[in-house]
Amino acid sequence: MPALPLDEAGKYVAGAYVVFVALILVYVAIIGAKIARIERDVSAIVDAEEDE
Amino acid sequence: MYSKGLAPLAAATAVTITTAFALVFFYAPNDADQGFIQKIFYVHVPMAIVALCGFVAGGIFAIKHLRSGDSSWDLRSYVAIHLSIILGVGVLATGAIWAKASWGHWWVWDEPVLVSFLVVFLLYCVYYPLRFSIEDPGRQARYSSVFAIAAGAFVPLNFIAVRMAESFTHPRVLSQTGGDLPGDMRLTFLVSLLGMALLFVTLWKLELTAKHASMQLKKLRNRARVAA
Amino acid sequence: MIAAARTILRKDLLIELRTKESVPAMVLFSITVYVLFHFGLDRDSLDGELASGVLWVTLLLAAVIGVSRLFAAEREQGGIDGLLLSPVDRTALFVAKAVALFLFLTAVELVAVPAFGLLLLGPGLGAAFPELLAVLALGNLGVAAVGALVSALAAETRAHELIVPILLLPLLVPVLIACAQATEPLFRQEAGPEDLGRWLGLLSLYDVVFVLLSVAVFDFLLED
């Protein structure tokens, strides 16, 4: 198969790397949301204990 | 406990991946046949290798879980499999992009690694419905471990079978994973592979920490509710 | 262990003989699928790789039905709890269920394979024997071992009829590959077994791995 010219090939290669980076970022975002929820719940417990 | 060493690990991952990207785009030469497209290989193949190792690791953690009864091994197994499935999505996506760029179709059956990966991916997708349809937590963990072990043993068998089948109908064309890479390409590939492996371990530790903290929190909340 | 396995096996075979639930349904299903393929492919007769593929895909799909039903008796009459309370070696349970499934598959194939020869196969079935028997035997063994394991895994999930197909079929891909590739040269006009050895070798490897694995791991299932 003859190689694609550079400008066309570039789009595909960029696409592949974008997929890779996007996966990482989405994953980090999800973990971040999870940590945020943990932080909210910890504050809730601390507040509940301070009220007693 | 789980987050020990996480910060230096993350730093090492960032450095390695940046180095790998630099090597891919500034150091490694263009492939004679495929041209610039071949650069996808540096992200697609390491992802596939790390994902498959992740699945097998999930099986090994599962064996440890069944032998010791310690549920922390089940957690490690679950996160490893979970991460490998996410990487698996990436493998199939980058594989499709490579196929489209090389052959003009979004999917080709020629490449036995990609095809066997599809089968493995379909199998591991069943992990979630199987796991979450069992309510009792002890049983859920045990059954998941049995699945992880069977699926982990399946991965190499399936690869052998698909490879044997493909070698009859399609001679191996995209055999880029062979050891016949020129030196500068091989260095780039190895650094990419290392970066991907470090990334996997970093994200694995990260998710383990978050999940474990969440579980501890639930215990704490139950205790507070009981005390109140 | 052998005695316990034999007792469970005898019970399962007696239930099947009396109720005639699984095997006739699997046979009927197979023949229906042949008809579907006739219309779907718009072909009167198949040979070579197409014939091989249609036969094995049909048999595997029929096996899914059998696997779904494997623990059905225990599930419906609460027999699982009875098994769990009794000091039955889990290995005995696995052996009994796997052998039962193997026998069911063999019974189905006694009808389904000649039916295939009658309905869809271009070249005669006779040329495929005796090699076809070897492929069937080794293939059935793999399906039986993995089927028993999957059936137990899915036995206590809420949605077991949904889980069994999507869990069983990917696991059986190597069996399908080996059986289809082995049978393909047997179903040609000038039949002759090529490369049979390597496919039988693959099947044997698969069977050994999954029988050993299932035996090792079965103790952790269905325990309380």
Assembly type of the shown chains? heterotrimer
Question: How much helicity do the residues of chain C have?
Answer: over 70%
Rg calculated over all Cα atoms of chain A: 22 Å
The major β-sheet of chain C equals: none
Structural class of the helix and strand makeup of chain C? Answer: mainly alpha
Per DSSP E runs of 2 or more residues, the count of β-strands of chain C stands at 0
Q: Ranges of chain C with pLDDT <50 over ≥5 residues?
A: none
Number of helical stretches of at least 4 residues of chain C? 10
Chain pair forming the biggest interface: A-B, 27 and 37 residues
Q: What is the rounded distance between the termini of chain C?
A: 20 Å
Structural account:
The complex is a heterotrimer of chains A (52), B (228) and C (224). Chain A has a domain at 22-52. Chain A has one helix at residues 6-51. Chain A is mainly alpha-helical. Chain B is an all-alpha fold and 228 residues long. Chain B has one domain (16-26, 35-227). Chain B has helices spanning 6-27, 41-68, 71-103, 112-125, 127-132, 137-169, 183-227. In chain C, α7 packs antiparallel against α8. Chain C has one domain. The interface between A and B is medium-sized, with 27 and 37 residues.
How is the topology of this model organized?
The complex is a heterotrimer of chains A (about 50), B (about 230) and C (about 220).
Chain A: H1 6-51
Chain B: H1 6-27, H2 41-68, H3 71-103, H4 112-125, H5 127-132, H6 137-169, H7 183-227
Chain C: H1 2-19, H2 22-41, H3 48-68, H4 72-76, H5 79-85, H6 90-119, H7 131-155, H8 160-171, H9 173-183, H10 196-217
Helix pairs in contact in C: 1-6, 2-3, 2-6, 3-6, 3-7, 3-8, 3-9, 6-7, 7-8, 7-9, 7-10, 9-10
Would you kindly provide a brief summary of this structure?
Chain A is mainly alpha-helical and 52 residues long. Chain A has one helix spanning 6-51. Chain A has a domain at 22-52.
Keywords:
heterotrimer; B: 228 residues; mainly alpha; C: 224 residues; 10 helices
